[in-house]
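G., the chain you wanted modeled:
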Amino acid sequence: MDTHDRSARKARLTLVGLAVLAAAGLTAGGVVAYSLLGNDDSEKGAAASTATAKPGPSATGSSDGGRMTPEKAKKITLRVPTGQANGVSTGFPHSPSGAISAAVYFWEEYAFLDDQKARQQLEAVVSPDAAGYIDEQISEVRKTREGANLPSSGGTPAGITFTTTVNAVRGKSLTPDGGVVQIWMNYDRYATTPEKPTDDAPLKGEDVDYILKWQNGQWKFTNEPKYWKKRSFPAAYFPDSPYAWDDGWVQVRHAD
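Predicted structure as tokens:
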């Protein structure tokens, strides 16, 4: 097996293990919905209505051509971070778009295959009230490594580059003032090597979610039971699905 084949195989095995992290790592919840569009940041994410998410049909919206869908709607533009800490972006405003941006930037920057770097990143953004949360996430990183036939501890394999791209988000507020939120994300992940700069079979349409709370002037990640027990699960995300739109899925646009 030549160098190219070994690198490509290792990248593929690694990607196979990534779904473990998405499925087991960071589920969260929400009950009080806030609008992702048309919500002035000065409102600080005040709740607009109360709803519990219900799964919708997974079929696309081809039979509902007149209904709104995520791909028809205006995208939410991510806020530009004003800081960096331990390899992760920080400094997002106290607003719905700020919380969404904090979640998206973190997930796209997260060193999900490097337990030491991941710990440093988590230490920068996890709430001090989230007892054991960092250790739980590092355990998931190590499980993912083992699932990819890598040693349980270590860095990303040399010569492999991973790129995570968030497609859409669904936000819910867990408190009336919008200070604690749940953010679901739908994302794709690609693995490339110098010999193979394109990924012919990436992970597509994966979902992951977080709980974030506004604390000490920053959005912090948490797993506190009083918020965890409020978790809800969204309708399946499809760009052309009216059910996804009705449930709150909105596509994201990265800031220029």
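The helical segments are 3-24, 96-109, 115-125, 133-147, 225-228, 242-246.

Shout if anything looks off.
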